[in-house]
Amino acid sequence: MSVFVTRRIPAEGLRLLSQASGCCVQLWDSEEPVPRSELLSGVAGKRGLLCLLTDRIDREVLDAAGPSLKVISTMSVGFDHLALDEIKKRGIRVGYTPDVLTDATAELSVALLLAACRRLPEAVEQVKNGGWTTWKPLWMCGYGLSESTVGIIGLGRIGQAVARRLKSFGVRRFLYSGSRPRPESAAEFGAEYVPLTRLAEESDFVVVTCSLTPATQGMCNRDFFSRMKKTSVFVNTSRGAVVNQEDLHEALAQGQIAAAGLDVTTPEPLPTDHPLLSLKNCVILPHVGSATYATRNTMAVLAANNLLAGLRGEPMPHELVL
User: pTM (2 decimals)?
Assistant: First the structure.
């Protein structure tokens, strides 16, 4: 059972693979992404592949692997980096890591929302650069969650976890949009299923937690932002490509919306001279939604167990149905 692992992952996951009977592991032993040439040579002749969301697993990679490749395990909840149609055609099984990062990502989403709406990075900078002189009634004012309306785009596991946390802040009303109504999930929050346009128009805070699909790509665009309130705050912790970043920059720079918080961008990393980074009302994090020690370790263990189960012809703990 020869496998290629595209990055240095938490030790427990690697230990499971290296100690598994008959499993021979080749590792790209670095914190940095595997170069394309190394990925193509590393996967050649392997039976299993453990990859990350930064690895584009397309036809070229699958051709390089050859017919021996039977299992792909991605250490991520998202799978838009995988050429699923081509993978399905070749009869390759796919494992992924949902659920385990739900709480960590929901916590980060709330933290990012609070940082943006209460202007926390700006406030910290004022302390450091001497801008803090005395208490002023109107200085550094932002927007609070109490009695607000929150719109969630994508009321899946993470969306529900975000709503559950925000409810305790005294949010008055929840709206949600998505591919279909989820009445059982929405009942806990009394959330109302509405069209995307209405969500934009009525929400004080918009949180994006949906998957990236052809239908969601670029859907948060100029039209969407133009419908939002001037006092609204926009947060995205899903995938960068859900947002048209040029349109978001325009909306923030022209005061069409109050602020934004992003944990995901296009590309990643975002170039240091990107226009969004010049805006005080835009808080950008380096895709750290799942970045707790416990969560990353659990992801690695699940990815390893998915891979091993697939190699043994057993049911995976979490298999993507193709």
Answer: 0.89
